[in-house]
Amino acid sequence: MLKPAKIYLDHNATTPVHEQVLEKMLPYFTQNFANPHSDHAFGWDASEALEQARKQVANLINARASEITFTSGATEAANLALFGFAKENRNKGQHIISCRTEHKAVLETLNALEKDGYEIGYVEVNCDGIVDLEQFQNLLRPDTSMVVMMLANNETGVIQDISEISKLAHQNGSLVMSDITQAVGKIEVDIKAMGIDIAIFSSHKIYGPKGAGAFYSSSKTDLARYMYGGNQENGMRPGTVNVPAVVGFGFASELASKQLQETSEGMLLLRNDFEEQLQSLEDVQINAKDQDRLPNTTSLSVHNVDGDALYRRMNRIAISRGSACTSNVIEASHVLTAMGIEESLALATYRISLGKSTTRQDLNLAFENIKTAINSIRKTSLV
């Protein structure tokens, strides 16, 4: 007897490499393998591929190719951008404003800057994860050199009004950095129109390979280098560039641009229907349901259950818990607790994120798995 198929619904964590992307990458492992910084014909060919990828990535966010620096991923990009900014602009003010619901890659880098003398102010969010703009304005000071605010949250999919945040920041003379990792490829991201000065994002969220990311920095933004050993990647990131991964990142960006509307509309329709099914279950809530969210993302909280036990019974679907596991200790998600969700409910909150390959049949099967698991847990608790 065949086992029921497992269904992957964790595309915010990572996506499979698109077949066409893989095809574009393969020659750069074996045939066009040269170092793009070698001064000969083989190197020139690799360099040309690198710069073509830079244009493709830049086009995805309406930037100039010269404003894109390739990295190994969004985490490294966050470090390069934040430390580079802090080192170059310390005399412009040592106060930075951010938000409690940022990704850990950003929050931990900000913690490091705090130990180095920077003062970090954090804006609160409401129960839907939306930044309190009034408090944000009150936090702005003459010495606020930077505002760090993500565009779309990785756990809830909530989209911030980054254009308004940028407007207020710029009126104060502050630069804006945004983590756009989850947004690119799912919604339109126009870096210029949004007023973002620095942005970080990654390849493996848009059906490109892992090991490639980038940060955008406006030509008006000054960043200092803090890594040494070579002048590759605008002098900001030394070392031989991972050409196959960057080529993949570039082509994935091109595909994401071309398919954005179709992909977004299709996932939104499926997600909304799926959420209607979920809300037919007792004591289930969709977090930030009425807010502007990524079209593929659902944050599902189940009341009156043991979150860990329920998660283990939803064993036919790949989803993420709204919590972080460190050294086998389950901790409530910092995003959810910042939204005012109590710890027990945060531990019974799950992120479901659809992808291009997700079908209605997948979601029907996922719903049955979730319903069966919830009913099973509740029956057990009554015994």
Structure description:
The chain is α/β, with parallel strands linked by helices. 39% of the residues lie in helices and 16% in strands. It contains twelve helices and 15 strands. The chain has helices at residues 19-25, 27-30, 41-60, 74-89, 104-115, 133-139, 162-171, 243-278, 307-313, 334-338, 343-346, 360-382; strands at 7-8, 68-71, 95-99, 119-123, 144-148, 175-179, 198-202, 213-217, 284-286, 297-302, 317-318, 320-321, 323-326, 329-332, 349-353. The strands form four sheets. A seven-stranded mixed beta sheet has the order 2-8-7-6-5-3-4, sandwiched between helices. A four-stranded antiparallel beta sheet has the order 9-10-15-12, covered by helices on one side. Strand 13 and strand 14 (329-332) form a beta hairpin. The two termini are 32 Å apart. The model has no long low-confidence stretch (mean pLDDT 93).
